[in-house]
Amino acid sequence: MARVGGGRLAGMVTAVAKKTEKPLVRLRTRGAGEALLLSEVLAFRRRLMQWYEEHARVLPWRGVSDPYRTWVSEIMLQQTRVAAVIEHYHAFLAKFPTLVSLSLAPEASVLAAWSGLGYYRRARMLHKAAQFIVRELGGVLPGNSIDLKTLPGIGEYTGAAIASISFGESIAVVDGNVERVLLRVTGRPYVSTAAGKKFVHEQAQALVPKKKLSVGVNAAGDHNQAMMELGATVCLPKGPLCGACPVYGLCETKGEHGSAPRTMQRSLPASYLLSLRKRGTVTEVLLSRRSAEVSLMAGMLELPPLPETVVAGREPLLRLRHAITNTNYYVQVFAARGLKDKKMLQAVLAEPEQLEWVRTSRLASHPLTGLARKSLQRLDVMEVRKVRMEGIERALAVEVSPAAFEDGLELDDY
DNA sequence: GAACCGTGGAA
DNA sequence: TTTCCAAGGTT
């Protein structure tokens, strides 16, 4: 790794030094932290694309021709793992197959389809943008990065991604993958400044093919996806697989690089109530709607939260971990049981008007928080409920007595 | 420019 | 159990 003289041979060298004299032509080298040379750019592109053709993962949004679908995939992929997106991508597009259908949908149904993906503002902005496009742009997604960026939820990265992938525009995407690859290849240390960002963008742009090579071949779009693919599958944040890297020979660091400091995580307990009731053949679950004012998951539905003081010493139905930003929540879900739980039921941290009963068969159409969705599925209240539902109902639903809610919770005809 | 916005799988 | 962090954008 250590190099003397601060440079690595780059490109072809034709001049030969005479014996006791200086070279006729100085060897062209690139020092740590410097930009790629032109000869390296061409080699980088070629090696990257050859690798990509062989190793590209098959992903649902690869090879789609509908810009709307590319748009949806790019919004979903923001700060979100591929595996999580795959779980939602098909269902979302089955529910909203076209830009127009999305624009006509109620926001709650869009959020319901987004449940579990997180960053719900993305779904709201996607929805808003679709409505704007239908209302103002004739229902056609803008065809270049400049105009795309005027839409809510589409910034620097996403504008470039859609423009290059859908329309072949020669503009570089810079996501976390691309940044990491370029910092390692050039050996420039990470700095969180505008200058640092500028360097990475310039490098990225220098590498993007200028034009489409031919009809049916999207050089820029494929190149951008290849850069991200390299970062995602080879140039990993920790333990990069340098042995499999197509541009290892062009890389300054061979995997070493600094990264941005991150904020410390903390752990907190959190408790929720599971309360079920049966009305004829219909089973309902009590949910609490988060205020429209809160910044986190505004207006979405969750299990009624309980204070830690009231659950002390009780045995939960379910324990799970749930991470929200920098906090690991160690979550417990409790069932209401009998009269002595009047205390627990009254302790629910929600106003009566926030509470609502939702038919378990219709949970998927409500904007549940990820935690509520996960808990309800884990408890077999949501989705698979044929087999174990009876046991759950006997244990839980029957125990919710009207007396427990006499403080205005309005359980009409339980 | 910094803070904020969700999630879950892997190590 | 705790840490890490992913195809970012908005305010």
How would you describe this structure to a colleague?
There is one protein chain. With 414 residues, the protein is α+β, with helices and mostly antiparallel strands. It has helices at 38-55, 67-77, 82-95, 99-104, 107-114, 121-136, 145-148, 156-167, 176-186, 194-207, 219-233, 308-311, 342-346, 370-378, 389-395; strands at residues 8-9, 29-30, 266-274, 276-279, 282-289, 301-302, 305-306, 318-324, 327-335, 355-359. The chain has two domains: 38-250, Hypothetical protein, domain 2 (Endonuclease III, domain 1, Orthogonal Bundle); 266-405, Nucleoside Triphosphate Pyrophosphohydrolase (Alpha-Beta Complex), CATH 3.90.79. Helix content is 37%, strand content 12%. The strands form three sheets. Strands 7-3-9-8 form a four-stranded mixed sheet.
Question: Could you give a quick summary of the protein structure above?
Answer:
The chain is α+β, with helices and mostly antiparallel strands and 414 residues long. Helices cover 37% and strands 12% of the residues.
With strands numbered from the N-terminus, the spatial order across the biggest sheet is 7-3-9-8
Fold-level CATH name of the largest domain: Endonuclease III, domain 1
Strand content: 5-15%
Evaluate the radius of gyration. Answer: 27 Å
Poorly predicted spans? 1-23, 384-414
Number of helices: 15
Distance between the termini: 73 Å
Domain module tally: 2
Secondary structure elements and pairings:
Blueprint: E1 8-9, E2 29-30, H1 38-55, H2 67-77, H3 82-95, H4 99-104, H5 107-114, H6 121-136, H7 145-148, H8 156-167, H9 176-186, H10 194-207, H11 219-233, E3 266-274, E4 276-279, E5 282-289, E6 301-302, E7 305-306, H12 308-311, E8 318-324, E9 327-335, H13 342-346, E10 355-359, H14 370-378, H15 389-395
Parallel strand pairs: 3-9
Antiparallel strand pairs: 1-2, 3-7, 4-5, 5-6, 5-10, 8-9
This protein binds a DNA duplex (11 and 11 nucleotides) through α2, α3, α6, α8 and α9.
